[in-house]
Design goal:
CATH topology of the largest domain: TIM Barrel
Keywords: Hydrolase
Radius of gyration: 24 Å
CATH superfamily of the largest domain: Metal-dependent hydrolases
Largest sheet: 9 strands, mixed
Structural class: alpha/beta
Bound molecules: zinc ion
Number of helices: 15
Shape: globular
Distance between the termini: 88 Å
Pfam family, one: Amidohydro_1
Protein name: Amidohydrolase family protein
CATH class of the largest domain: Alpha Beta
Length: 492
């Protein structure tokens, strides 16, 4: 007797037919009560996860993906990304928050056209799909009228990901645009039926001006049944005053996501916790721009649920492995520093790799109100899946601690297969039918236009902000050639 030959590996084109898919022999991080399953299978039928277990019986026409040596996780969920800014990828890599505000809010906000939003969103959406971020909240604050909103949505129709449009207009007044007829018509036209592939939220900030005019925008969100996402606790921009206003007016609830929340006081964190809100932690951003210390360290003391986000690729990556890695390291770094200040030693790190994997998946689902739809590998949920597998990578062997492996060992180059809503969009490390070139052309045209509007001098000057040189510290030690010792000058 001989064992039957294993089924041949599917080819990319086989996935077009909508046949069931089975991942075989994976290390499955379910992010639900099942925990981690070794050598397990996951069956996808239609849009949904049909079964999770060992040696699953599958329908006869199932396409089987050999996941041996790989880790299967839920797709990542980014709860705050200014996707439109991706067209200027890396331009502001040396900025602090001040340059960002001056560039976009004060000087050049008027320059961007709907096609620039479209180009940025296309590139960002493609990157999401490519890197395993199956759901992205587009914090789209450059929508100066609904034509811009249509441009943002057009990109989402062309890329097979799950998106939530966080509609915003940073050059306008939220209490005005959210109540305008043209905005209401945009909502009616595009969001007239529940759709878990494309959602809508209102995106605006509360800087704490005395009259609290944003109350009108919160009321609009209530009227429309929409969630709100707001940059809170941003040093020098949004403070505890805004939280007090929101709380006193009764607008803090479980439908609000507080982005960053890095510089809030104890009362503000307690109000967020008490009202069921969530915080979107954007560690790469906070560590570099100066909103405050990445808040996972603070909010876990209050039991506030966290999700992760990459903020904007005008500065940083959109790499969700980096989001998890940076958050875990920043949290631990702060714990160590606080302990050392008390002359104590941390003997066991409190935040675990499992915690940030959870933030990157279920945490994001919860922040979007989609915890019953996505965020875990649970039968009945929509199939948003990520197979991390790279048989040629030394970093992918051995896999001993799956959570820690995902966070500290794996990377975007190891994204083997991505499934969105039951559809395979990337397989064996290659996207299926989603070429970069046409999108790159649109982005290049957008860059050329924006650059021409700025002029060459400003284009380069704004990319490289001037800094005052550090004051050098005088060194009391001297090194004399031929002398093995380095002695303090005062000891001469
Ligand atoms: Zn932001």
């Amino acid at each position: 007797m001989s064992t039957p030959d294993p089924a041949p590996a599917p080819r990319a084109e086989d996935f077009a037919g909508g046949r069931p898919i089975a991942f075989r022999n994976a290390t499955v991080i379910t992010v639900d009560s099942g925990g981690v399953l070794d050598n397990a299978d996951v069956l996808v039928v239609g849009e949904k996860i049909e079964a999770v277990g060992h040696h699953l019986d599958v329908p006869g026409d199932t396409l089987e993906i050999d996941a041996t040596g790989g880790i299967l996780t839920p797709g990542f969920v980014d709860t705050h990304r200014h996707m439109w800014q991706t067209a200027l990828r890396g331009y502001g890599g040396d900025w602090a928050l001040t340059q960002y505000f001056v560039f976009y809010y004060l000087q050049w906000g008027q320059v961007f056209r709907p096609e620039d939003v479209y180009a940025g969103n296309l590139l960002s959406a493609l990157e999401s799909v490519d890197t395993g971020v199956t759901t992205t909240l587009d914090w789209s604050h450059g929508l100066r009228n609904p034509d811009y909103g249509e441009a943002a949505l057009q990109a989402f129709r062309e890329i097979p990901g799950r998106f939530v449009l966080g509609y915003g207009d940073y050059l306008g007044a939220p209490w005005e645009w959210s109540n305008s007829q043209e905005f209401r018509a945009f909502v009616t036209k595009n969001f007239n039926a529940p759709n878990d592939m494309l959602g809508l939220q209102l995106a605006f900030d509360v800087p704490g001006s005395a009259e609290f005019p944003e109350a009108g925008a919160f009321q609009a969100a209530r009227d429309l049944g929409l969630r709100v996402t707001t940059h809170a606790g941003v040093w020098g921009a949004t403070t505890d005053t805004g939280i007090v206003q929101m709380y006193d007016a009764g607008f803090m609830d479980e439908k609000v996501t507080y982005v960053h929340s890095s510089t809030l006081n104890e009362q503000s964190y307690q109000k967020i916790a008490a009202t069921g809100g969530t915080v979107s932690v954007a560690t790469e951003s906070e560590q570099s721009a100066g909103q405050g210390y990445p808040s996972s360290w603070a909010i876990r003391h209050y039991g506030i649920p966290a999700s992760l986000s990459m903020d904007t690729s005008v500065w940083w990556s959109a790499d969700f492995f980096s989001a998890m890695r940076a958050t875990l390291s920043a949290d631990r770094s702060r714990d160590h520093l606080e302990a050392h200040a008390r002359n104590e030693t941390i003997v066991a790190n409190r935040l675990r790799a499992e915690d940030v994997v959870r933030m990157a998946t279920m945490g994001g689902a919860k922040a979007l109100g989609m915890e019953d739809v996505i965020g875990s590998i649970t039968p009945g949920k929509k199939a948003d899946l990520l197979l991390i597998k790279n048989d040629e990578s030394p970093a992918m062997t051995p896999i001993l601690n799956p959570y820690a492996h995902v966070v500290y060992q794996a990377g975007t180059a190891d994204v083997h297969t991505v499934v969105v809503n039951g559809k395979v969009v990337k397989y064996d490390g290659k996207r299926i039918g989603l070429p970069l070139a046409p999108i790159a052309d649109k982005v290049a045209a957008s860059v050329e236009y924006v650059r021409s509007q700025l002029g060459e001098e400003r284009w380069f000057a704004d990319m490289h902000p001037e800094i005052q040189p550090d004051e050098e510290i005088e060194n009391p030690y001297k090194y004399t050639s031929g002398d093995a010792h380095v002695t303090a000058a005062s000891e001469d």
